Amino acid sequence: MSEQLLDVQNLWVRFPSRRGIFDAVRGISFSLGRERLGIVGESGSGKSMTGRAILRLVREPGIVEADHINLHDVNLLDLPEQQMRSVRGRKISMVMQDPKFSLNPVMTIGAQMIEAHRQSTGAGQSTARARSLEMLDAVAIRNPHRVLRAYPHEMSGGMGQRIMIAMMLAANPEILIADEPTSALDVSVQRQVLNIMDDLVRERGMGLIFISHDLNLVSEFCDRVLIMFAGRIVEVCDADKLAEAKHPYTQGLLNSLPRLDVPRDRLAVLKRDDAWAEAPSVSGQIKS
To answer: Which conformational region is residue 122 in: left (phi greater than 0), alpha (psi within -120 to 50 degrees), or beta?
Structure first.
């Protein structure tokens, strides 16, 4: 059995609206060990909101409720905001989907990396700078000294994503949440970023939550997969057996993807059943 790092039980994320309360995440439960856990589903299925809720990044008037979100034996929902800040970055880091919106455009990359590292670890200026250079080198960025002096707009999408990964891993967190980290990248850069993440996660024995809409990518890269529909987990399976999924929603997602080995004149249209949204959420706990 994989060592359990994170345990989420009965998580709900709600938003008030003119039509009443909207449930973005609806009573899901799962755990994470030292593994690569994929969360997949269509846009609006609750994937990103789940990652944000773990770090308590859902802004008001959003409401996050759960029986617990345990990091080891500590319920993150019980921590005051000051203690929660020591969790973000130091113990759990999150790489957002688009680095253009994550990096401050008026600060150099070096200033942002150094500030983030000092906030997370309390390190001095010179130590934080040395660590930033070390992490840029770890994500295969050439001439890290030049990159530290540059501004975000001078970087390509792939470079920006690698910089964000370097920044989030600098404090040696136990868990990395990666929200669509390769969605805006071309195939060659995408593979390079995935290899970098895979190497860093394996070397450090971290837990990774990999949020994506790309089932083929997740089946190759992850160990386990949670499939979400309308805020619920409808199926859990081993990543290498994703093609054998039983739930009709998962099968529909797979059949709507083009495949070179099985050419078809027309792709299947994804059909949805409202009953799936009302069925109890499947548990994504680590198997003993």
So the answer is: left
The confidence score (pLDDT) of residue 2 equals 63
Per-residue model confidence (pLDDT) at position 122:
84
Quick one: DSSP state of residue 122?
-
The per-residue pLDDT for 160 is 86
Burial 7-42 (b: 16+ CB within 10 A, else e): bbbebbbbeeeeeeeebbbbbbbbbbbbbbbbbbbe
Q: What is the pLDDT of residue 272?
A: 86
Structure tokens at 212: 């994506």
Closest CA to 49 of 91, 100, 12, 3: 12
pLDDT at 168 over 90: no
Whether the CB-CB separation of 183 and 96 falls below 8 Å is answered with no
Q: Residues 58-75: pLDDT tens digits?
A: 999 999 999 999 999 899
pTM metric for this prediction: 0.90
3-state secondary structure 57-69: CCCCCCEEECCEE
CA 202/CA 219 separation, integer angstroms? 17
Please name which of 23, 13, 35 lies closest in space to residue 284, comparing C-alpha atoms.
Answer: 35
Residue with structure tokens 């949670």? 226
Residue 156 and residue 193: Cα distance in Å, rounded?
13
List CB contacts of 275: < 8 A, sequence separation 6 or more.
none
Counting residues of the chain whose pLDDT is more than 70, the rounded percentage is 97
